[in-house]
Amino acid sequence: MTSLLPKLREIVGDQGLIADPSAESRYHGDWSTHAKCAPLAVVRPANTTEVAQVLAACHEARQPVVVQGGLTGLSGGATPAGHELALSLERLNGIEDLDAQSMTMTVGAGTPLEAIQQAAEDAGFRFPLDLGARGSCNIGGNIATNAGGNQVIRYGMTRNLVLGLETVLADGTIISSLNRMLKNNAGYDLKHLFIGSEGTLGVVTRAVLRLFPRLGNKCTAMCGVDSFTNVVELLHLLGKKFGGELNTFEVMWANYFDHMLANLADARSPFADHQYPLYALIEIETADEADGMARLEVCLAEALEAGVLQDVALAQSLREAENFWKIRDGVSDIPNLLTETAAFDVSVPINVMESFVADVDSSLNKRFANYSNLVFGHIGDNNLHLLVATGDKSDYQAINDTVYGVVGDYRGSVSAEHGIGLIRKDYLMYSRTPEEIELMQRLKATLDPNNILNPGRIF
Ligand SMILES: Cc1cc2nc3c(=O)[nH]c(=O)nc-3n(C[C@H](O)[C@H](O)[C@H](O)COP(=O)(O)OP(=O)(O)OC[C@H]3O[C@@H](n4cnc5c(N)ncnc54)[C@H](O)[C@@H]3O)c2cc1C
User: Fold this and answer.
1) What's the 158 CA to ligand 1 centre distance in angstroms?
2) What share of the chain has pLDDT > 90, as a percent?
3) Domain for residue 454, yes or no?
4) Are 382 and 349 in contact (CB under 8 A)?
5) Which of 67, 72, 344, 420 would be a feasible disulfide site paired with 199, CB 3.0-4.6 Å?
6) Phi-psi map region of 456: left, alpha, beta (phi>0 left; psi -120 to 50 alpha)
7) Residues lining ligand 1, CB < 6 A?
8) What is the 425 CA–ligand 1 centroid distance (Å)?
9) Which residues are bridge partners to 250 per DSSP?
10) Ligand 1 atom closest to Cα of 194?
11) Same domain, residue pair 411 and 321
């Protein structure tokens, strides 16, 4: 490190190097429960060339590097070990180009998601990736984790929103695949290697993103539902009536819904004192607001009549819609809720989701005298989040073993959208075959033969 540091300073200048980051806690870890740690140093390159030079130097010196974006990840992937150098992309921040004709935007990897959404809106478009951490996460991190979020049912995951990518390999080679076309079958589509690879195969430096027309007429409803069978029925009904106009279908189990209301100062139930086992938050977005609202009203009235749902509240104003969303999205506003619980991000097919939740509860019940398990998720995408706590942090490992064991029984995914990082790698084998994991390892060894990029993440 003594000979590497001066070399790195030469590449990135004084502004780009924090040689002693012990007091710079921002770089010590992400939002996950993984233990925070100061890296050896923090390198903050200002452009792709500097990223390439930094990586080439680290490759030669066999210096392990952890890649950092907005540090909102929930898997520990960006949390350094003490012998690692942190490579922060925060200075590659900016929108380079917005092409209204092609409906594309070219951005630096360190650009916050919210800035990208805003720039798209200002130009009359929409960049539809949306998640609770929008103000802090960066597009490079979103791409590296193939982030999902609230509108996957309509627009797909990050993978579907990226047309082109510029990446730097571990040895400093720049792979420029800044494609701007929707169709391009000229050989392998290499960007897909890097999207969702959690920084283990290359460092994303720039991206070409797909934009969509901004319809801007959202209609939001909260439904009280008496059974999971009816939740699925409601999802199918909305699919039939609205097809691609359905933006969101989020479901909250009663214990999550009640916990949010009890702990968020300004959230209130649209159903006053009436309680239901399940709550579905629905959002459609149509070209014509009045038409959308009228169609949603008719559809939900029919569902009410048919007993598919038991209560419904249609947001009559932006404020009411925000109140519904606050209940669903308020996790990060409740101090310590994400950091003091074992937080799961799993997926199982929708036809077994109800029995999966029951089996998780019964397994937790057998192992722990007291526990809470708050359940919610992007049900239209098969994605469930569980927040499990016993009040004793030393149970954390046993909780993980219990819940992931049930995921394995169902051949579900131990990570639907947050990634494996450091905290789920012991459970990867529940969701991937030995052959799949071996192929991942072979790709890793080919692209990063000295194992310097995010070593130990994923496997
Ligand atoms: C309140 C809250 C809500 C959330 N909601 C969602 C949600 O709905 N859906 C969802 O998918 N996630 C969600 N997340 C998780 C998190 O926001 C996403 O994983 C996000 O994509 C991470 O982006 P980041 O810039 O913060 O990445 P970081 O946390 O900095 O890094 C994440 C991983 O990507 C790697 N990485 C970062 N930048 C690059 C790069 N340029 N090149 C290569 N590798 C890189 C890191 O090494 C690490 O492995 C949520 C998090 C919070 C705190």
Assistant:
1) 11
2) 90
3) no
4) yes
5) 67
6) left
7) 30-31, 66-74, 77-78, 89, 109, 131-133, 137-138, 140-142, 144-145, 147-149, 198-199, 203-204, 331-332, 417-418, 421, 454, 457
8) 17
9) 281
10) 43
11) no
Pocket test for ligand 1, best of 28, 137, 200, 448 (most atoms within 8 A of CB): 137
pLDDT digits (tens, 9 = 90+) for 44-103: 999 999 999 999 999 999 999 999 999 999 999 999 999 999 999 999 999 999 999 999
CATH code assigned at 106: 3.30.465.10
Q: What is the pLDDT of residues 373-405, one digit of tens each?
A: 999 999 989 999 999 999 998 999 999 999 999
Retrieve residue 145's tokens: 């984790």
Give the type of residue at 213.
P
Which two tokens mark 326? 């606050």
Q: Are 200 and 458 in contact (CB under 8 A)?
A: yes
Answer yes or no: do 253 and 320 share one domain: yes
**Domain, as residue range, for 12:** 4-91
| Residue 63 dihedral angles phi and psi, to the nearest 5° | -90, 115
The reply to whether 17 and 68 lie within a common domain is: yes
Taking alpha carbons only, the member of 43, 51, 93, 69 closest to residue 141 is: 69
Strand partners, 343: 387
**Are 209 and 223 within one domain?**
no
Q: Are residues 178 and 76 part of one domain?
A: no
